[in-house]
Design a protein that fits this description.
By secondary structure, this protein is an alpha+beta fold. Helices cover 38% and strands 24% of the residues. The longest helix is centred in the last third of the chain and has 18 residues. It binds guanosine-5'-diphosphate (GDP) and manganese (II) ion (MN).
Length: 382
């Protein structure tokens, strides 16, 4: 789950990280009021869940409250990378001397969190990571020991930070580390962490990704989810307890079990096809869950065929088959459907489905081959 900049910065502030004292507005009038209250030059910042807002024109300075209203009107009318801007953050403008990058994420290969930092922070950081990776320094953290003081110093030295800023930089590193651990984040990032003209440090931007699997123990954070900004398919999937991830292929996959879903995608690819999604309907999936899964798959206009791969262990094949029939009634899909059903009550399941016009397959590779062939036919028709 992604947090908005303003949400991430509020969390950072609780950990002692200095942030600008701005507020969020949903309308241009509100933006003007906030700018009036602040009484200084402001920066109007689009709140959308994508990076690169600055380059897209979604971050703009305004000299006074009237200008803030004007700029906010424009930004609130924008779409950034396909996402409509619904909120803007109005922060007092900062006098920036230098922009630093500071972030923490998990380094899976090293099996531990890693701090990353660069003296060349700001909107070009991705470019720098590509062309001058040596300008980004990395310090791995032992998860049991946590961030040690000498490590924060190592980072400060690594980015050539002047000694007068070390103490504050150390506090920010510690704050960011604790925010990362306490919130079960998979990424925390301050870009830019700026050195102001008067030499103090401040987090001008904030990004936070939270581990969805840990949200059950953070009800306060779970509430921060902005469903307006999410793909509706994913929101819908979560409601039914389905794990769905949209991909860009055209073979819709409905599978029970995450491992089996991954295998199905692999076999589809090996057979020359492209999966349209990852979807795990879970164990013991009921008829209405299957129906929801089918609606979600079909909401993707790229889908040309659906491949059902069901192994009936806890999930009973007849139950899944009934779910498919209910969904067919409801959605009336016109595309070919290939089914492979094995396991508990497979016979009954197949009997139920024999009424519906579905292509059956005995093995997964057989099913994948038939799905790919059906896509080829569909594309030739078109
Ligand atoms: P991003 O492009 O989505 O990462 O948005 P940021 O919040 O990082 O803003 C992009 C850039 O806008 C920053 O790197 C700064 O150069 C600039 N910027 C943001 N806030 C201010 C501000 O208060 N004053 C000035 N002068 N520039 C700012
Ligand atoms: Mn940024």
């Amino acid at each position: 789950m992604k947090l908005h900049e303003y949400q991430a910065k509020q969390i950072f502030a609780r950990y002692g990280i200095p942030i600008p004292k701005g507020r969020v507005a949903s309308s241009a009038v509100e933006a003007r009021q906030i700018a009036e209250e602040l009484g200084v030059r402001v920066v109007v910042k689009s709140q959308v869940l994508v990076g690169g807002r600055g380059k897209a024109g979604g971050i703009r300075l305004a000299k006074n409250a009237r200008e803030a209203e004007e700029v906010a009107t424009q930004i609130l009318g924008m779409e950034i990378k396909g996402l409509p801007v619904r909120k803007v953050l109005i922060d007092p403008a900062a006098n920036i001397e230098q922009e630093i990058y500071l972030g923490i994420t998990n380094d899976r290969a090293a099996r531990r969190p890693v701090f990353m930092s660069s003296a060349a922070g700001g909107v070009e950081i991705e470019e720098i990571a590509r062309t001058n990776p040596e300008k980004i320094i990395k310090v791995h953290i032992d998860p049991l020991l946590g961030l040690r003081d000498y490590q924060a110093r190592d980072i400060a030295i690594g980015i050539d930070l002047s000694k007068e800023s070390w103490k504050q930089f150390g506090e920010i590193c510690r704050g960011l580390w604790h925010a990362y651990v306490d919130c079960d984040a998979t990424l925390v990032e301050i870009n830019p962490l700026v050195i102001l003209k008067e030499k103090s440090l401040m987090a001008l931007d904030g990004k936070m990704l939270l581990d969805d699997n840990a949200l059950f123990r953070h009800s306060d954070l779970a509430e921060l989810r902005d469903i307006d900004e999410e793909a509706t398919a994913e929101t819908e999937a979560r409601k039914y307890g389905l794990s769905y991830i949209k991909l860009d292929g055209n073979i819709g996959c409905m599978v029970n079990g995450a491992g089996l879903a991954m295998t199905t995608m692999d076999i589809v690819k090996l057979s020359g096809g492209k999966p349209a999604n990852f979807l795990d309907i879970g164990g013991g999936a009921s008829a209405d869950k299957v129906a929801a899964a089918m609606r979600i798959i079909l909401s993707d206009k790229n889908v040309k065929v659906i491949l059902f791969n069901v192994f009936g262990g806890i999930t009973r094949c007849d139950e899944v088959a009934r779910g498919i029939l209910i969904a067919l009634e409801e959605v009336k899909p016109t595309i070919p459907m290939i089914v492979r059903l094995v396991g508990t009550n497979a016979e009954e399941g197949r009997k139920i489905l024999s009424e519906a016009k579905m292509i059956t397959a005995d093995t997964l590779s057989d099913a994948a081959r038939k799905a790919v062939a059906a896509v080829v036919d569909k594309l030739q028709e078109a």
